[in-house]
Amino acid sequence: MKGEERILIVEDKETLRAVLRKTLEAEGFGVDEAPDGREAVQMLRRDRFAMVLTDLRLPRADGHEVLQAAVR
Question: Mean per-residue pLDDT for 1-9?
Fold first, then answer.
């Protein structure tokens, strides 16, 4: 999975998003980020991700909506 497949991080707290990105990239994973649920849903409509790591409490669409979009 490392390298070619991407992980989507959905987190409204910028500092936490940055820590998660840095940690995953240090392990060799490709990472994309979304600061809110609506942007994550739009990204999931355009691209496929190997994994979605999401907060459940998000602005503009909650984590449950993000996960529903991920399985479609």
Answer: 78
